[in-house]
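<purpose> Linking amino acid order to shape
<body> The protein record starts here
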Amino acid sequence: MVMQVYGPVRAACPHRVLTCLLEKGVEFEVVHVDLDSGEHKRPDFLLRHPFGPVPVIEDGDFRLFESRAIIRYIAVKYEEQGPNLLGKSLEEKAVVDQWLEVEAHNFNELVFTMAMQLVILPRMGERGDLALVDACERKLEKVFGVYEQRLSKSRYLARD
């Protein structure tokens, strides 16, 4: 049975999981969840993830939610397949965790805020806060500068 990934393929958090699966060469199936209609807030989906966000994976009888937990699970389960994404030594693993935290707190929050203001709120008939978007863009430029510096020395942010 192939791993099932619940969520829309266009959403950022499912993208994180799909990228990991593709990088590791794992067969999977996407089960579309329609966020626009609120499918992720319906009782049947809330049985998979009690808070409602996507993605969720089902791997046989095992179910897991939260994209960063899912990618760690995939990287460990398929450790011998594809590239090593988590590192081997304690230090390498710590650096991977460090960059996952950087992504979560210095990149993702800014991009999410911008998407909310520029895409989601307007789709709901509300105006986005363009000053907030500008502030996020300025902060994001600094993050991209750090990313570029790091990626000039290694294939991935955390390691080669």
Observations:
- Residues 90-123 form the longest helix (34 residues).
- Residues 10 and 32 are 10 Å apart (CA to CA).
- The first strand starts at residue 3 and ends at 6.
